[in-house]
Design brief:
With 149 residues, the protein is of the alpha+beta class. The chain has one domain. It has 5 helices and 8 strands.
Length: 149
């Protein structure tokens, strides 16, 4: 699916994803982003950036409230994820608010039916999300089922 719209003032992906080519960590704003203006190296941006389009950009069915800077997270679908929710480190629980939480739970059911996964990245914590619970996959303490609903 191609781009259905443009980023506009969002740029949340410039914060929440690592960019190995420029040694950017996944919780820092990219040093090449001029807030309010855009990428200073856009024409020469790394392949990681060049090849990424979030689901909000690609799916015109997602309303304005799902725009990453409004929602507090970026939706993407890298293999093996059917859906990966990557939260703004300043709003790690944003995905638990409505209308997001119930929609993400439904997405989890749908992705599971297609042998894919739904995950949520909250800083250094990665959750595998099911329709009725989450399982912590990465965290200082290891793997644990937190039974959250």
């Amino acid at each position: 699916m191609g781009a259905a719209r443009t980023c506009g003032p969002c740029h949340m992906c410039c914060r929440v994803f690592p960019i190995p080519e420029i040694e950017k960590h996944h919780t820092n704003w990219c040093a090449n982003l001029e807030r309010g203006q855009g990428c200073r190296i856009y024409a020469e941006r790394p392949h990681t950036c060049r090849n990424f389009h979030c689901l909000w950009i690609r799916d015109e069915n997602l309303t304005e409230e799902w725009r990453p800077d409004h929602a507090g997270f970026v939706l993407s679908d890298p293999e093996p994820w059917g859906l990966l929710v990557t939260c703004d480190p300043e709003r790690p629980g944003a995905w638990r608010r409505e209308p997001y939480h119930s929609a993400i739970r439904q997405w989890a059911r749908s992705t599971a039916e297609h042998a894919a996964f739904t995950g949520v990245r909250e800083g250094d914590r990665l959750l595998l999300v099911f329709e009725d619970r989450e399982v912590v996959l990465e965290e200082a303490g290891g793997i644990a089922d937190n039974g959250a609903s």
